[in-house]
Structures are given as C-alpha cells and as structure tokens.
Task: structure prediction
Amino acid sequence: MYYESDFIKDVYTTGDVAKYLGIAPRTVMRKDREGVIPFKRSDTNRRILPREELLEYLDKTGLLYRDGGKRFDVIYARVSTGKQEERGDLDRQVVNVLDYAKEMGLTRLKILKEVGSGLNDNRKELARLLGYIMEKRVSRVFVNYRDRLTRFGFRYIEAVCKFNGTEIIVISDETREKTVQEELAEDLVAIIHSFSGKLYGLRRSAKKDIEQSINSLPEAGNE
Result:
C-alpha cells in the first residue's frame, strides 16, 4: 500500500512503475502496449507516466491510500555500532519512542533506523529524513535523544525543520542510558583516531618533502 503523498515527481519511468507494482520493467512495457497502463512519450521517445495517471492506476489496483497529500510523522532511531544493534538497543529505542508518540496521536508514520556514528554526516537514513523535511512532507520528528540525530550541530537541523514547518520532539532529553554514554566514548575515540591519522599523514608528508630536498642537493665535490 502506498500513500498519495509519497509521490512527489511529475512523471515516472517504466522502472519506477515496475518497482511500485513489484513486476519486471518488461511486463510494464507489455501493459503499455496493451493499453492497460496509459504511458505517454517524452521528447526523446521514452515512456513516461504522469503522476495522476500512476495514482489512478494504483488506486484501481488497490495499492493506493488517498491521504490528500497530508504530512506524516517520522520516528528516527540510531545506534553507533552493530554490537548495539545485535543486543537489541536499536529496536528498544524504536519501541520507547513509539510508545511515547502514540500518546500524541499518530495518523501516518514512517520509522527510519540505522547503525552509524553520530559524527558521521553521510548517514543514509538521516539524508532521507532531511529530504522528506525539505520537501515539506514531515509534520513531526520523534527521537529518543537529541544526539540520535547528530552528535554536533543539532541546532542546524532544528533550524531546517522550523523553516519547513517540521517539529522535532525529543523524548528523553535529560535521562542518559549506559549505551549512550558508551557511544559518546566511542565517538570521542573516533575523533582522536581521526586527528591522529591526519597528524601522522602530515608528518609523513613533511618528512618526505625534507628527504626530497636533501636528495636534490648537489653532492660534495661535484661543483
């Protein structure tokens, strides 16, 4: 089942339609030839399906929920290591936030969860969340702690949310669990390792430059 507000593009390709229907692109092309799916042609003669046509087809096949383009809520959960995920920390985090969020009245909900350091600014699910927010599709973001979103720079994300009409709701801003303290220690160690590696690289580079300078000097007695 798909929500109407999930579809934000004006036109969709055969590959897009195949993904939504769970069939092969070749089957989608056959349905086009049979007139089942009303594809149109682009200037380059490629099959394209307008958004409304796709929504109408999905509606007929029972795969669409007409929500009128309403916004949805998001639960974002994160742990730093695979070990934490294995011992159930990530799932417990989701359950904790979900129990709280239900009391505030949820209508539509997406759950995004991932494993990654709070210092990593290239997290897949965080990028997806920010994309939803900047498309003005998110009403509220529920997180267990502020640092689930990011270890540093929380106010920047908060500013982006406010600009796009999204509210961040932090469930447990004061209480700290042992797992969170462990993560902070791991992140600090990661920072030290990162800077140590950079310093080591700078030293190697400087040493190499000195050696090259020495090797380029003329030998004694050759002048």
Summary: Residues 70 and 166 are 13 Å apart (CA to CA). The mean pLDDT is 84. The radius of gyration is 26 Å.
